[in-house]
Design goal:
Layout lengths: L3 H4 E4 L3 H6 L4 E6 L5 H12 L3 E9 L3 E4 L2 E4 L3 E8 L9
Antiparallel strand pairs: 1-2, 2-6, 3-6, 4-5
Length: 92
């Protein structure tokens, strides 16, 4: 059984993420196998808010250099969650 803690890995705190907060949108790093329905249920369960919409994006890994060789970081999934009117996630 997959839990809410398995679906939502972290709340992404970046410059882009903080500019979306006045629009009731929050960025989350989620499990790559998670669906939009899984993400919606997990956010509602963990943060006790009402989710209006979920958008997901697969972020490609970046090219990194290790000594003389090149490699890539792993791909990850980002979710942009829009909350219902009047809802807010308290971020500290």
């Amino acid at each position: 059984m997959i839990t809410s803690y398995d679906v939502i890995k972290t709340l992404v705190r970046t410059e882009k993420g903080t500019t979306l907060e006045p629009h009731r949108q929050y960025l989350f790093h989620v499990a790559k196998s998670a669906t939009k329905i899984d993400i919606k249920r997990a956010v509602e369960d963990l943060y006790k808010v009402k989710v209006q919409d979920v958008h997901t994006i697969i972020m490609p890994g970046k090219r990194k250099r290790v000594r003389q060789d090149f490699g890539y970081t792993t791909d990850w999934k980002k979710a942009i969650v829009t909350l219902a009117e009047g809802q807010k996630i308290e971020v500290t």
